[in-house]
Specification:
One of its GO terms (cellular component) is DNA-directed RNA polymerase complex. Belongs to the RNA polymerase beta chain family. It holds the Pfam family RNA_pol_Rpb2_1. The chain is α+β, with helices and mostly antiparallel strands and 127 residues long. The chain has 2 domains: 1-35, no CATH class; 51-124, no CATH class. The protein has 3 helices and 8 strands. The strands form 3 sheets. A 3-stranded antiparallel beta sheet has the order 1-2-3. The chain has a 3-stranded antiparallel beta sheet with strand order 4-5-8. Strand 2 and strand 3 form a beta hairpin.
């Protein structure tokens, strides 16, 4: 998209309808009013964790054969990813959910362990 001297945006030189800068900002403003800036980042992270990362891991297989026992093949298949819920244990023993803002204000690290279920198979070849 380019902007010409009259403050109008164009999507291309093939005769597409032009959109003014004011119209573009009206759409952008409406988007952030309805979804919010932070909500957009949260949605993006959740999609990465729940969908993209899971797709990368699911079904990945690692197979190897030890040099000392060539008749055996070890196979590991990665399955479901999951993450601990972040909690904070206070000095009096009470446990509460930990949120990013609390971690920032109290100078805590906001991190969690990531786990994956695996399926292990040992395959013996007949010699």
């Amino acid at each position: 998209m380019s902007t010409n001297n009259a403050g109008r945006s164009s999507t291309g030189s093939d005769g597409d309808e032009e959109i003014s800068t004011k119209e573009v900002w009206t759409v952008v403003s409406a988007f952030f009013r309805s979804r919010g800036f932070v909500q957009n980042q949260i949605h993006s992270f959740n999609k990465f964790f729940n969908q993209t990362l899971q797709e990368m891991v699911t079904g990945a297989v690692i197979s190897f054969r030890p040099e000392t026992r060539r008749e055996v093949i070890h196979s590991i298949t990665f399955l479901q990813l999951y993450c601990d819920k972040l909690t904070l244990t206070e000095s009096d023993g009470t446990v509460a959910d930990l949120y990013p803002n609390i971690a920032r204000l109290r100078n805590f690290t906001y991190s969690a362990s990531l786990y994956v279920d695996v399926c292990y198979k040992m395959i013996k070849k007949k010699t």
